[in-house]
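Q: Hi! Curious about what Enoyl reductase (ER) domain-containing protein looks like structurally. Here's the sequence.
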Amino acid sequence: MPGIISAQEIAVARRGGPDVLAVRTVERAVPEGDQVLIRVATAGVAYGDLLLREGLVPGAGSSPVPGYDVVGVVEEAGPTARFSPGDRVAAWTGGTGGYTTRALVSDRYVVIVPDSVTDETASALVLTYITAWQMLTRASSVGEGGTILVHGATGAVGQAVVELARLRGLRVIGTGSSRRLAALSGDDFVGVDRAGDWSAEVRRAASDGVDAAFDGVGGRVGRRSLSLLRTGGTLVVYGATGALRNGRRSIVGLAGAALGSAWATSMGLFVRGIGIQGYVSTRFVADHPAWFASDLTLLLELAAEERIAPRIAATLPMERAAEAHRMLARGVEGKVILRSDS
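A: Let's find out. The predicted structure is below.
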């Protein structure tokens, strides 16, 4: 049919575990306006994809397609698009729609990928490193020599925050499993075993408090982190991994997140001179496309110059998305990538 292009995608057939992910064939319209149609090479797998699969993302609709980002080549472009067929690009898909062989997106969320940057590296940057960079530079502002606390420092986002913070001359205290924290060792990094009394360890490492704390767990972790901030400090909350257990929705985890959410009153924050800032890419990126384009261009340049090097945990064929979700639920060091053979 003229004006229609076939694509395959991985959709959530129903709420549940990894096995609910199913391949389906769909039709894509020819790009209009500023849209571009991208033939997808790679797509990143994120913890938010597991939350989507478990039905924990409001407004996702029925049978959504996971995936925040794609990297590939522009196949067709709308009449006002800034890109041309043949351009190799990275794109943010808006929180859904990345697990596909062809993605239709607005050019406001598309950036050219330098030739020296691999598809996998570019995929790691679009969501994971954008989240880390914007939390460090837009959701908070810690000057050179400052100290930050990063929860889950061995996860994909945590590793990105640690790497970018070091690049900015910050001292990092990171929580995680003692076995994995060893890989991040250095003069500017203090590892804290999350299995122990981590808040006491953080106090010993930063007796005056930290300038910012980054919490992707939620619940009680955030509340305890508030007590570790120095005057003028900021708690940046960017996730709720505590809502899942082994990659599945958990009543206990959801209850813990809910009970721990009432961390402080505005007056309490005022008196202590500290603040809480939420970060969610589906708002920050969606509402500020110019920030996204500028920040991703910078990150791609840093990768091309080999000043940052995202760690890739695994690259799997897109049809093995369920396996990728299981890997993420077990815990991996780095980013999991899906590759399309379209």
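A: A fun detail: Residues 28 and 200 are 54 Å apart (CA to CA).
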